[in-house]
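Hi everyone, sorry if this is the wrong subforum. Our group has a chain we'd like a structural model of before ordering constructs, and none of us has done structure prediction before. Sequence below.
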Amino acid sequence: MRSGSLTPDGRPTVGGELRLPKPPGVIRQFWARHPRFTDGLIAGLYGVPSLIGIIASASTAESASTPGSGYAVALAVIATLAVTAVLALARRSRPWLLMSAAWVVCLAVAPSAPVDLVAVVIALYGLGVYRSTRSAWIGFGASVVVGWVATALTVGLYRVDDVEPFGATAPASASQFAIFMLIATLIGITVGNRRRYLDALIGRAHDLAHERDQQAKLATAAERSRIAREMHDIVSHNLTVMVTLAEGAASTTERDAERAASAMRHVAETGRDALGEMRRMLGVLSSADEVSSARSPQPGAGDVLELVDDARRAGLPIELNWSGAAPTDTTLSLTVYRIVQEALTNIMRHARGVAHVSVIVRATAESIELTIDDDGPAQPDRASDGHERGILGMRERVALYGGTLDAGALTPRGWRVHADIPVPPTTTTPEAP
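Answer:
Right subforum, don't worry. Here is the predicted structure as tokens:
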């Protein structure tokens, strides 16, 4: 996440507009780290004064003269203790249970003491924070009805308005209670929405971090696959050419020493080229090498002619037929080069008695078509190249552009590799190799 400037109150901005939420202070962090202690403290602050108020109200002569006042006091005490226990144990996890208990205590206390809406206010706040906005408004509507009923019971049983907490009739007192409940509901909804918003941001950040890690793993796997293909093409082709030249030099040493010496010089040249390509490939894996050494560019379609000449010097009778212009896109150009290189390597490695090899390249603005034919025997191991990396690597390269590659035996003998590669719209073909 990229940070921008600071707001006047010292908070950082993101992207120039989005303000990061203010980090919690020491007090907020303390309450967040000790939820059980917080709930127990709230329960104590509610339960102790409520019980004292019920007992004080029951001790008055007016309450004592009320019929059945003892049962009403006992019911109020039991309900208050129940709400206190719910506050301490389930205020966050089960706010609807607390809401129901608060309604019960509100109605149970009404016959023996003034209306007790403290638990209702706490429960409405909990619904807004720990449930949802919809739950908070439903709880508010039901609480208004319960508060009106409790107020009516208190005024009717006391029969004296000045004993009522606000010194008013039941409807007026209920409307005043509704204001307090509305304030608690709005505060709970505000805090809850902010809490849910932060949770969504944190969840999104975790998802992005997980997605970033997955993308990094995929990129690493793709890069390993690419390096493996490049290493295979470099090592396989150059070693095959070197082995072929060395065998030819060994067989002609006695008959034509000069030709054998020329072949061995070409072996050394091919080995140096292979070492250079290996150093370039390994240099990609080291930032120090990348900075300190100047590496030659990757081969491309323009190097196909040199590739064919190398194969000719190795004794392969090749005819190159190129029409159209070479692609300027470096990756596509490398793909063309590697496909021709792999096809010729397989011919030198597996085919015996080859009399003719044809390399045909048809390049247009829309596609590049490659056809490499030979008249050697169609041996089964040519399809797998030992570990199936050769043809598989060619198919992967072609698939990057949405093209197709076919490799198989010809009738009555021979082998064909045919690739059709679409040219991206941004790739131009200004000149032929």
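For your construct planning: The first helix runs from residue 26 to 33. Residues 12-17, 159-169, 287-294, 427-433 have pLDDT under 50 and may be disordered.
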